[in-house]
Amino acid sequence: MSTAHITFTKGAGKFDQMTVHRADGDEVVACPKQRIIPHDMAHYAVEHTLGRRGFLSRVREGEVAAFRMQPDAESDAVERLVEVFQGDAWSGGTSAPQDLLDLYHVTCAARACQPLAVTLADLAAVRAAFQALDAQWQALPVGLPLAL
């Protein structure tokens, strides 16, 4: 199993950049700007806070950072939770935790995905991590990296 570390660099144009640093070379991924933290950084907030295996965990383990990866039940459930937190952040980040949980279950059901067993406290912890990363990201000057 390969290990890697990941940095995000704030871009000046329409894209930010995620770099996966591995012993055998770096993999660079363009991340479309979206006003909030990059989508893949949102993965970090969810995966790191909940200790779950999702996209970034798989990339750190050696998989190529591709738009489509092989299905994986836990990773797919993480993806749905990332989407819920992105939607919440785009609308101000003030949705009630129960509303986030309900939306997560609806999203998983719509995609035939078994949801993770998350609590309202888990969601509050992810939101705090998301907001902390967003504050760091917004304060970061263009061209500089944020290592995770």
Jot down its keywords.
single chain, 148 residues, alpha+beta, 4-stranded antiparallel sheet, 5 helices, 4 strands, globular
Q: How do you describe this structure in short?
A:
This protein has one domain (4-141).
Could you walk me through the main structural features you see in this protein, from its secondary elements to its overall organization?
The structure is a single chain. With 148 residues, the protein is α+β, with helices and mostly antiparallel strands. The chain has one domain (4-141). The protein is 47% helix and 17% strand. The protein is built from five helices and four strands. A four-stranded antiparallel β-sheet has the order 3-2-1-4, with helices on one face. Helix 1 (39-50) packs across helix 3 (73-90), helix 1 (39-50) crosses helix 5 (120-139) and helix 3 crosses helix 4. 28% of the residues are buried. The mean pLDDT is 91.
Largest sheet: spatial strand order = 3-2-1-4
Uncertain runs with pLDDT below 50, 5 residues or more? none
Overall average residue pLDDT: 91
The N- to C-terminal Cα distance equals 19 Å
Topology as a string of helices (H) and strands (E): EEEHHHHHE
Question: What number of domains?
Answer: 1
* Total strand segments: 4
Described by strand count, sense and barrel closure, the largest sheet is: 4 strands, antiparallel
